[in-house]
Amino acid sequence: MDVAVLTVGEELLAGDTDNTNASWLAAELTTRGVSVRRILTVPDDRDVIADRTRAYSDAFDAVIVTGGIGGTPDDVTMDAVAAAFDRGLVASDLAIGEVKQRLAEISDSVPELDIDVEAEAAIPAGAEPLSNPEGLAPGCRLENVYVLPGIPSEMQAMFETIATDFTGTLTERLLYTVEPEANIVGALADARDRFDVRVGCYPDRAARHNRLKLTGTDETALDDAAAWLLEVIDASETPVERDWDPDHEPAGGPD
């Protein structure tokens, strides 16, 4: 399963807010064997969101859009997703019921909220509303597009309600080496081509080693690739360290 993640918000692009939603979703999806093929951050721009939603919906098995839902002027995501599928916004009885229930639940802690319930509950016509266990505005599922809140606690809680929709066969093997990155380029390329797996090398200065990540859907190919690399380079299946000064590392070392 190939998935794209679209995070929405001017605050993300300006660096005012860390994009923890993207990294959290990527980790959760990868854990479920899903291949995350795109992560893109876009502004609160209806046309841009609609264009990328439409393109990613065609290109990937599923799209997760986070941010820009609610009642403030910059919350244009629902309208944009509706536009991507040439639909209008409607407030279904189910979505209205969800919003009213949440308002009742928080009435003691947040009294006298001036909320336009129908506007808050509006989602693209034909979409399935997704309840928001931690917030007010519902998300939705429209064909292969999932719209979730931008507030991390709300996004995570809503994702848990749809997590079973995301499964895949992608898996990985991790190896560790203290060999300089430049010295193992050829071996990593050979492993990739020989066994048809993805190969990544990730230097870790703090841990004083390079982490090698082999990714694919064929368990046997991954095992064979890992075994071959263990033979041809100085690598281990567990983290290893050596004494080295990161400020005086020779060319080709961890970077």
Structure commentary:
36% of the residues lie in helices and 23% in strands. Mean pLDDT is 89; it is low at 244-248 and 250-255. Helix 3 (46-59) crosses helix 4 (77-84) and helix 8 runs antiparallel to helix 9 (219-232). The chain has 2 domains: 2-165, Molybdenum Cofactor Biosythetic Enzyme, Chain A, CATH 3.40.980.10; 171-248, Ribosomal Protein S8, Chain: A, domain 1. The chain has 255 residues and is of the alpha/beta class. A 6-stranded mixed β-sheet has the order 2-1-3-8-7-6, with helices on both faces. The protein has a 4-stranded antiparallel β-sheet with strand order 10-11-9-12, covered by helices on one side.
Quickly describe the structure.
With 255 residues, the chain is α/β, with parallel strands linked by helices. The chain contains nine helices and twelve strands.
Q: Which percent range describes the beta-strand content?
A: 15-25%
Which residues form runs of ≥5 with pLDDT under 50? 244-248, 250-255
Query: How would you classify the quaternary structure?
Result: single chain
The secondary-structure class comes to alpha/beta
Number of strands: 12
CATH class of the largest domain: Alpha Beta
Distance between the termini: 32 Å
- Please give the largest β-sheet: 6 strands, mixed
Mean pLDDT equals 89
Helix content: 25-40%
| Computed CA radius of gyration, to the nearest angstrom | 23 Å
Task: Classify the fold: give the CATH topology of the largest domain.
Answer: Molybdenum Cofactor Biosythetic Enzyme, Chain A
Number of domains: 2
Question: Order of strands in the sheet with the most strands?
Answer: 2-1-3-8-7-6
Number of helices: 9
In one word, what is the shape? elongated
Return the CATH architecture of the largest domain: 3-Layer(aba) Sandwich
Q: How do the SSEs run, as a string of H and E?
A: EHHEHEHEHHEEEEHEHEEHE
Say which CATH homologous superfamily of the largest domain is assigned: MoaB/Mog-like domain
